[in-house]
Prior knowledge:
The chain is of the alpha+beta class. The protein has 2 domains: 10-280 and 292-373, no CATH class; 378-513, Topoisomerase I, Chain A, domain 4 (Orthogonal Bundle), CATH 1.10.132. It contains 13 helices and 16 strands. It has helices at 23-31, 46-64, 73-82, 126-129, 150-163, 195-216, 311-319, 333-336, 368-373, 377-409, 419-448, 452-481, 486-505; strands at 10-14, 17-21, 35-37, 121-123, 186-190, 224-226, 240-241, 245-250, 255-260, 266-271, 278-279, 294-295, 300-301, 323-324, 342-352, 355-366. A 3-stranded antiparallel beta sheet has the order 2-1-3. Strands 4-10-9 form a 3-stranded antiparallel beta sheet. The relative contact order is 0.09. The model is unreliable at 134-145 (pLDDT under 50).
Amino acid sequence: MFNIITEGLVRMTVADEGRSASLPEVFAALMRDEVKTFPALRPHQRHAWHAFLVQLGAMAMVQASVSEPPENATEWADLIRGLTSDYSDDEPWQLVVEDITKPAFMQPPASSKDKEKEFKNTVTTPDELDMLVTAKDHDLKAAVAKRASVDDWIFALITLQTMEGFGGAGNYGISRMNGGLGSRPAFSLVPEGGPGAHVKRDIVALLEHRSAMLDTYPMTDNGAALLWTLPWDGTSVQALLVSQLDPFYIEVCRRIRLGSDANGEVQGIRASSKAARVKSKEMKGRMGDPWTPVDLKGEKSLTLATGGFTYKRVADYLTSPDWERPTLLRPTHAEQGSAETMQLVARAMVRGQGKTEGYYERTIPIKRKTKMALLHRARTQDLGDIAQARIERVGTVQRILSHAIQTFAARGDSDKISPEHRKLSRPWLNQLDAIVDARFFDDLQTEFEADESARGSIQNEWLLNVVVAAARRILHAAEDALSCPAIQRYRARVAAEGLFEGRLRGNQGLPFLFTEEGDEDDS
């Protein structure tokens, strides 16, 4: 029931017109880059759906020895079925299969029918199944999708099974994550176009890098690929070893089966597990995920912290020798010969203990020289040196701005600065960080792509006209907003601004910006 290969179960928008499509039709439309949106897809599900399509498409092409992604739905149906040729009734592609000893879509089979008694917890809505932590007192309520469509269940299933972490006793997380409270972040270069251009590009890139991935990670060519097709009763004996997996494997981390009620509405039921599906704890998430950076010092995959993809973090992930950039953040052979501007897209859900700490997504236009630098560590280090210099100098301006605001709050007496005054300065420093963040990578690439002889003047102009100018405006705004007795306000303002300008020009500031030729009267 609900066969995603033969039935139009996934809603998509093509040429401003909504239609429902089967999975092969989705692939065909994506390869033609006709798809604008998937209306049922929630923001935090974007990478789960994208990764599923890319990994499935790449594995199907490898299995059939096909080198170019087809644009025909019939060809895609044959390719997908080629991965599950042992199932003549398409059980692995049906959302509801009554026989628990047979797989259903993203739902592993049990070894025997007597295991049905272990499935006790009912799931009535797809948002209850999803990985987001919800509750009655949260902004995002629990189990409210009462009128869900089939694709709501499809997206929730894929997200749960390929993105979820530890959820309490008997609920283990995915292998592509550093620990149960980790995350599965995604970094990729993306060409111009819609979702289809991104999917097609990542499929092609995965195929290019398959041999290198097999050489790098202890996985197996033609190993276990669609883990929901393998029997699993949640025992440690059945845990799969890393060496048994295909490098493109699509995993499942929870035991769940979907059924339908008397009205034909989908509902689910789940069981606990005694062990994780993949025995990979010692790998710390280093499972060859082609979207995830790896911390080389800690030998673990990236877990994004609260606050998301700040410019400081992204610059570190992209350029620091302490991080191994993911496979899909490297330009393909075709992209290396193209002058096309691409985008870097980063996505991640930040998870905490028993809570969700936010979904983050960032898109950064990437120019050709920067794109090519991602191929070579020496060139990336050059980019990183420029980024680090900029970050350090922004930090210098922030410290001076903080001191000036604290001095104003202390009514002009810097000797009487208290912890409360320091606390008052933090929101204003965040404003400066946000201004820098909004254009950091555009400005960074402008300097990086220039001749080396011009780089110094480009950075100095940015520091003076963007960072310092913004800091002055923020200081003046803070002076207008913060509480200060009228009789002391003039003294406090003069002291704060004098300290700000003096420290900027001092040896611990940025004196090189204020030579006789370049200094300006900013009073």
